[in-house]
């Protein structure tokens, strides 16, 4: 055992570090920390996509069987997989990022979050860094799903797919931020996290036209779907993966994703500022 | 180093109920002091520490910590203090060395300097072999040492430790303290800790601040507190069933008070127990009083707490009962 230098390391900054530059630096530190476990254990990406894979494997074939004949009508051109795979990507974003608050909840319990709160890291960076990190596993999961589905006849329009991935990432940041905000809000009754998450996720999913076309549903369902940002996102992803990039559908998808991200970050940053109480 | 004035903190539990966790704490701590804040669970120790470390804002009152106001300049306070909370500071999915590197970069070290600092601290706290281990795979004692390492990354001049050894076995507690005291000597650090282990406050701290119901009820060195508020106690029994002649002898000892005679047993507070007992035995032999047993009880901080509040600190301690309590009564064979 040697002794530790008596004086503080000379580089330690004691002067103020404010402004956007400091914020970007802090966001980078938080994001890097959040990504490390993923880097050490890349297979953990798979855990977040169990549900979408189940739907792909066990629901997709049913869809092919029952709707396959309608291809070209309700589902647009290109068959069932062309219609279903983009929706599964949105589902991956939905399941992956809406559960991510659980990791923060765990850090509340262990004390790791408290440790971050007594460091000079700015409060917003603690939320933004975490939310931005959601892009990485999400992109990984999306790429895996697309690659898996190509042998089954899924046709890839590369440019559209890349824009689709970016769209998904922006939405994931927003939903991830909301998931963290939820975790902060319920930190004193942590079981509430799963109650709220599970209660919201299925109506959102069914009212997005992700699994079955909403066109065949009753009027009230189609009206409800119009209020669901996820529905716009699903439509936009389907358009993008069909190669239709410059359409109004895609534009509405971007509006939905950007609004989700803006609201999520605003709500999340506010929640984070009060997370020590 | 710390100047807190009339700090209070209320928690609103419901519309009709507000808990006054801290009811006006004023505390001055000079550079280099090692101060233990002692009190039962729920006394307001942790709430006070959370205010001083900028985690929560006071309901009223002010505090200057490391030269900066905790409410107006929280970021400055955070840059200067080290903090080891009750929980574990390291994320369970992280690796030991990564967490130290992250802390280094938070405090402005570049990658190389952060790695070097992490290596120094790993070495100093006996964690080098665990550097690539996941935090969730560490034992309680190892995790606690990592917490201390994380709190020291930036070489703070003031270190807060919130119940640093709760849940550790005696061997790990001793080991942790060895590290903390050595780091303190090397860094010339001011250390403030909360504890509900009275022996820990007694043996480690130079100054003990006793807190109860959100207020400071005593503040002095452990030795002075014990001498002033508790004092030595002797318990003597006689062969036979009447201790009254012995009680009269006890009454004549220097500083004797609260003399209680109960059957064949006399107990009393005296000024200096170890000196008083031989004197009493000589007087008993001279007066032909047959003494059977004699004991000196030297006071613990628990006796101090009992004298101050009428309650025992131990009542709140059963959860983490400490088998190796250093201050068991010293029995003196007669």
UniProtKB/TrEMBL annotation, chain A:
Answer yes or no on keyword Cell membrane.
yes
Q: Mostly located where?
A: membrane
| Cited Pfam families | ABC2_membrane
Q: Which InterPro entries match?
A: ABC2_TM (IPR013525), ABC2_TM_bact-type (IPR047817), ABC_2_transport (IPR000412), Nod_factor_ABC_transporter (IPR051784)
Quick check: keyword Calcium in the entry? Answer: no
Q: Membrane-crossing residues?
A: 43-63, 83-106, 135-154, 160-184, 191-212, 251-273
Which residues belong to any copy of the ABC transmembrane type-2 domain?
43-275
Which keywords describe this protein according to UniProt? Antibiotic resistance, Cell membrane, Membrane, Transmembrane, Transmembrane helix, Transport
Compartmental location: Cell membrane; Membrane
* Membrane topology reported for the UniProt record: Multi-pass membrane protein
Provide the family line: Belongs to the ABC-2 integral membrane protein family.
The name under which this protein is listed is: Transport permease protein
Species name for this entry?
Plantactinospora alkalitolerans
Taxonomic lineage:
Bacteria, Bacillati, Actinomycetota, Actinomycetes, Micromonosporales
TrEMBL record, chain B:
Q: Where is the ABC transporter domain?
A: 2-238
Name the source organism.
Plantactinospora alkalitolerans
The reply to whether ATP-binding figures as a keyword in the UniProt entry is yes
Q: What is this protein called?
A: ATP-binding cassette domain-containing protein
| Keyword Nucleotide-binding (UniProt) | yes
Q: Where is this region: Disordered?
A: 314-334
What SUPFAM superfamilies does the record point to? P-loop containing nucleoside triphosphate hydrolases
Q: Name one GO molecular function term.
A: ATP binding
PANTHER family xrefs: ABC TRANSPORTER, LINEARMYCIN RESISTANCE ATP-BINDING PROTEIN LNRL
Alphabetic keyword roster: ATP-binding, Nucleotide-binding, Transport
User: Span of the secretion signal?
Assistant: none
């Amino acid at each position: 055992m040697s002794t530790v230098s008596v004086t503080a390391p000379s580089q330690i900054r004691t002067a103020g570090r404010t402004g956007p530059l400091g914020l970007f630096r802090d966001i980078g530190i938080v994001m890097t920390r959040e990504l490390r476990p993923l880097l050490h254990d890349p297979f953990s990406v798979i855990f977040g996509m169990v549900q979408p894979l189940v739907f792909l494997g066990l629901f997709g074939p049913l869809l092919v069987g029952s709707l396959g004949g309608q291809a070209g009508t309700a589902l647009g051109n290109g068959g069932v997989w062309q219609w279903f795979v983009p929706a599964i990507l949105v589902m991956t974003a939905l399941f992956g990022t809406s559960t991510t608050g659980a990791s923060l909840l765990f850090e509340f319990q262990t004390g790791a979050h408290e440790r971050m709160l007594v460091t000079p890291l700015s409060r917003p960076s603690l939320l933004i860094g975490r939310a931005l990190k959601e892009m990485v596993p999400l992109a990984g999961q999306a790429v895996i799903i697309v690659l898996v589905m190509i042998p089954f006849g899924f046709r890839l329009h590369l440019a559209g797919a890349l824009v689709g991935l970016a769209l998904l990432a922006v939405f994931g940041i927003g939903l991830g931020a909301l998931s963290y905000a939820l975790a902060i809000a319920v930190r004193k009754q942590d079981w509430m996290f799963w109650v709220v998450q599970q209660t919201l996720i299925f109506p959102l999913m069914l009212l997005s036209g992700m699994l079955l076309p909403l066109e065949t549903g009753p009027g009230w369902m189609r009206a409800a779907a119009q209020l669901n940002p996820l529905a716009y996102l699903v439509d936009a992803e389907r358009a993008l993966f069909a190669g239709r990039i410059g359409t109004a559908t895609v534009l509405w998808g971007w509006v939905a994703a950007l609004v989700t991200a803006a609201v999520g970050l605003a709500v999340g940053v506010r929640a984070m500022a009060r997370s020590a109480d | 180093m710390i100047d807190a004035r009339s700090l209070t903190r209320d928690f609103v539990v419901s519309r009709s109920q507000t808990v006054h966790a801290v009811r006006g704490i004023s505390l001055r701590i000079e550079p280099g002091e090692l101060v233990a804040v002692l009190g039962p669970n729920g006394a307001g120790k942790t709430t006070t520490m959370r205010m001083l470390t900028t985690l929560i804002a006071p309901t009223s009152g002010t505090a200057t910590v490391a030269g900066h106001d905790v409410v107006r300049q929280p970021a400055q306070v955070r840059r200067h203090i080290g903090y080891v909370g009750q929980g574990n500071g390291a994320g369970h999915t992280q690796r030991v060395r990564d967490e130290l590197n992250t802390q280094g970069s938070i405090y402005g070290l570049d990658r190389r300097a952060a790695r070097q600092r992490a290596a120094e601290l790993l070495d100093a706290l006996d964690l080098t072999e665990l550097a690539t281990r996941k935090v969730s795979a560490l034992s309680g004692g190892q995790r606690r040492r990592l917490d201390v390492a994380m709190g020291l990354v930036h070489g703070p001049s003031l270190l807060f430790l919130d119940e640093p050894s709760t849940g550790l076995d005696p061997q790990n507690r001793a080991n942790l303290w060895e590290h903390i005291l050595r780091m303190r000597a090397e860094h010339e650090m001011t250390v403030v800790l909360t504890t509900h282990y009275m022996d820990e406050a007694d043996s480690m701290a130079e100054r003990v601040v006793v807190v109860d119901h959100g207020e400071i009820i005593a503040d002095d060195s452990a030795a002075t507190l014990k001498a002033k508020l508790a004092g030595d106690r002797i318990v003597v029994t006689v062969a036979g069933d009447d201790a009254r002649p012995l009680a009269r002898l006890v009454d004549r000892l220097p500083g004797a008070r609260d003399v209680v005679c109960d059957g064949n047993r006399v107990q009393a507070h005296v000024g200096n127990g170890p000196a008083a007992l031989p004197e009493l035995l000589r007087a008993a032999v001279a007066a032909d009083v047959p003494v059977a047993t004699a004991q000196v009880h030297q006071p613990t901080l628990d006796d101090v707490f009992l004298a101050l509040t009428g309650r025992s600190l131990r009542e709140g301690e059963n959860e983490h009962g400490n088998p190796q309590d250093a201050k068991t009564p010293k029995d003196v064979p007669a």
